[in-house]
Amino acid sequence: MNGSVNIKELNDRIRQESAFVDLIHIEMNKVIVGQKHLVESLLTGLLADGHILLEGLPGLAKTLAINTLATTIDAKFSRIQFTPDLLPADLLGTMIYSQKKEEFTVKKGPVFANFILADEINRSPAKVQSALLEAMQEKQVTIGGQTYPLDAPFLVLATQNPIEQEGTYPLPEAQVDRFMLKVVIDYPSRDEERQIIRENLGQVFPSAVTILKPADILKARETVKEVYMDEKIERYILDLVFATRYPDQYKLEKLKTMITYGASPRASINLAKAAKTYAFIKRRGYVIPEDVRAVCFDVLRHRIGLSYEAEAENMTTVDIVTEIMNTVEVP
Fold first, then answer.
1. Which pLDDT belongs to residue 93?
2. Helix or strand or coil: residue 80?
3. Are 233 and 287 within 8 A, CB to CB?
4. φ and ψ at 149, to 5 degrees?
5. Using an 8 Å Cβ cutoff, are 185 and 37 in contact?
6. Phi, psi dihedrals of residue 129, rounded to the nearest 5°
7. Roughly how many angstroms between the first and final C-alpha of the chain, as a whole number?
8. What pLDDT shows up at residue 205?
9. Contact (Cβ atoms closer than 8 angstroms) between residue 300 and residue 267
């Protein structure tokens, strides 16, 4: 017993209720070769009710991954290609005049889905980006003075191409902060790529089957909240976040000139949520320090401002987070 929480009972119950995670992995692995971190990040965002910013080169199965996840959950999927001429109405929907009825009717946009892939979000102007980010935050859309709630679960996976910066509108820090995770994905290994070639040249391309309903995900989210987090883990999360703001208090004086601003309170909230969700995905009823460390890079990498000195020394936010994780005492 730990206070009023019976860890053993909670652990057994969560082990049973998280059984579907293995089934999702099986279905995803039929279609997606490798990209284990991408699949785990998608599940973390889905079960923690947080959105994901994905950075990766073209052709790394970003669209395929979220489409496959939508198939396994019997959810509606929308892919929106962000272009410089996109308007907020193209995203959210608009009022259309019906001559037959002699009145305006609402035509809902592609944002009315469970899974949204916002492809190359940095290609569109700020007005369109903020329209999507408002929908993400408020979980509702206003068209013609009428407010419409978005379907639950609602997960946005926004991608940006790290190579091309010409003709793009980088997301402002305040908007980037709304994404729970920023995931960077890399090329598959040689063996994985051989398997990808074989699957694409085969007679039939593998496909996933539906195993869950959206209601099952909403129920799982409630269970994730019950995952036990000890006070020591809470203190560890606060230490990691506060070390980005006041590095000199954590014997990290050399980072003081490298950081222009540290992680916001959203970082602490999301680090705790993501750690609980990661424990749930690993089918455990309690959070251990390794869960926090597993999600730390994705939660913090887009929330730290680098100074000119850091850029001059080719220091990245990943280097800073690594330094903090190596220095802050693990409970």
1. 87
2. strand
3. yes
4. -70, 150
5. yes
6. -60, -45
7. 20
8. 81
9. yes
Looking at residue 208, its pLDDT comes to 84
DSSP 3-state assignment of 5?
Answer: strand
**Which residues are CB-contacts of 205 (< 8 A; sequence separation ≥ 6)?**
199
| Structure tokens given for 330 | 């693990």
Helix residue ranges, H only, 142-264: 173-176, 190-201, 214-225, 231-245
Q: What are phi and psi of 282, to 5 degrees?
A: -85, 10
Q: Residue 202: in which H helix or E strand, if any?
A: none
Kindly provide the residue ranges of all beta strands, DSSP E only, lying in the chain, ordered along the sequence: 52-55, 77-81, 93-98, 103-108, 115-119, 140-143, 146-149, 155-160, 181-184, 259-261, 305-306
User: Which two three-digit tokens encode residue 276?
Assistant: 């609980």
Helix (H, G, I), strand (E, B) or coil at 141: strand
Which helix H or strand E contains 331, and what residues bound it?
none
Residue 159 · residue 118 · CB < 8 Å:
yes
**The two structure tokens encoding residue 19:** 């059984």
Structure tokens of 221? 């989210």
The span from the CA of 238 to the CA of 227, in Å, is 18
Q: What pLDDT score was predicted for residue 4? A: 57
CB count in 10 Å sphere of residue 102: 7
At 1 the pLDDT is 42
Conformation bin of residue 89: beta by default, left when phi > 0, alpha when psi is -120 to 50: alpha
Q: Which of 209, 220, 282, 215 is nearest to 27 (CA)?
A: 209
147 dihedral zone (left: phi>0; alpha: psi -120 to 50; beta): beta
Q: Could you state, in chain order, the average pLDDT of each consecutive group of 10 residues for the chain (331 residues)?
A: 68 87 89 86 91 85 85 88 89 84 83 89 85 86 86 88 68 83 89 88 83 89 91 94 92 89 92 95 92 94 90 90 91 84
In this predicted structure, what is the pLDDT of residue 159? 87
What's the pTM?
0.87
Give the domains, in start order, of the chain with CATH numbers: 19-216 (3.40.50.300), 227-327 (1.10.8.80)
